Amino acid sequence: xxxxxxxxxxxxxxxxxxxxxxxxxxxxxxxxxxxxxxxxxxxxxxxxxxxxxxxxxxxxxxxxxxxxxxxxxxxxxxxxxxxxxxxxxxxxxxxxxxxxxxxxxxxxxxxxxxxxxxxxxxxxxxxxxxxxxxxxxxxxxxxxxxxxxxxxxxxxxxxxxxxxxxxxxxxxxxxxxxxxxx
Length: 182
Prior knowledge:
α2 packs across α3 (about 70-80). About 25% of the residues lie in helices and about 30% in strands. The chain has about 180 residues and is of the alpha/beta class.
């Protein structure tokens, strides 16, 4: 779902030999036959994307893998039943440290966003996946039993760092696992 995607996201998928169906932010993608759903980054207040949130709520009932980046993460949080809030200054740089929840593993990430998911409002089956080490805000969420996850930062950052590009591989592994279980 293209909410304002960066070209390098498309490149990251094509480098992994993925067939893409690119649809606009307000398109009802639930009418399509797809193996995995990707929600791109994009500008603005996620609550303004009501059509995307409605369609995503339908997709969250299924078990097809879903991966969101930046705005895509916020949309996933809203569709799951959570809320978002405006950050005072936003996160804007190539050197934002994040920590993988439940570990001591940290990554240096590229970020450019002004909103964040309020993890206190997420249903019990959702949890924070990454935490911003500068201010403790949510940098991604995941479902506890379904193959749904997101990052607030940009794992595809063309200007670097590339520390988290493995997340594209993780998503595609979930897609293959889903297809093999069908």
